[in-house]
Design a protein that fits this description.
heterodimer; A: 111 residues; mainly beta; B: 111 residues; 6-stranded mixed sheet; 4-stranded antiparallel sheet
């Protein structure tokens, strides 16, 4: 079993839709949770970072963590064609440790 | 300020040759990470440098892979006697505390 499982997609939605991206993890030692966006042939770009259960909002993006169920989500409101990319969840145990990534979900937002 | 930079952006080499990939982290970041992104494999951790501590090499796939970080800044990842399965995008990231910021990557193709 992989340490981090991510809904594989691909996901195709119309412009303006609410998008839900999801990951689950198995190791309760994981403490820090991140979401990255990666455009084709580019490096991953940090979108959201959180370390506590609950919601964290930044503009159209909301990161949600539920440590009791070991489940994390990223919600995108009012999705735009420019949101079309691969989204990666990434988790780590301590402040200085390596990131463990999900496989990524490819999102296409159609105008 | 400037982000993480990597060079070269693309490298094509013949099987059996050695290659060197370079990473310039964000100024002031004490931690530096190398990851590899392959089709169907996702992002996998290779090696981690933190300050003057001994690096965490636990992700290196074989003894053909090595890395060093000189003066606590620039890092070089070396792959000796390259194999076709080494073809991937090699990504470098740096961090100060928790968030890791990625460079654009080096796309390595081994013929």
């Amino acid at each position: 079993q992989k340490e981090v499982e991510q809904d594989p997609g691909p996901l195709s939605v119309p412009e303006g839709a609410i998008v839900s991206l999801n990951c689950t993890y198995s190791n309760s030692a994981f403490q820090y949770f991140m979401w990255y966006r990666q455009y084709s042939r580019k490096g991953p770009e940090l979108l959201m970072y959180t370390y506590s259960s609950g919601n964290k909002e930044d503009g159209r993006f909301t990161a949600q963590v539920d440590k009791s169920s070991k489940h994390i989500s990223l919600f995108i409101r009012d999705s735009q064609p420019s949101d079309s990319a691969t989204y990666l969840c990434a988790i780590k145990e301590t402040s200085g440790s390596r990131l463990t990534f999900g496989e990524g979900t490819q999102l296409t937002v159609n105008p | 300020g400037a982000g993480v930079s990597q060079s070269p952006s693309n490298k094509v080499t013949e099987k059996g040759k050695d290659v060197e990939l370079r990473c310039d982290p964000i100024s002031g970041h004490t931690a530096l990470y190398w990851y590899r992104q392959s089709l169907g494999q996702g992002l996998e951790f290779l090696i981690y440098f933190q300050g003057n501590s001994a690096p965490d090499k636990s992700g290196l796939p074989s003894d053909r892979f090595s890395a060093e970080r000189t003066g606590g800044s620039v890092s070089t990842l070396t792959i000796q006697r390259t194999q076709q399965e080494d073809s991937a995008v090699y990504l470098c990231a740096s961090s100060q505390i928790n968030e890791q910021f990625f460079g654009p990557g080096t796309r390595l193709t081994v013929l």
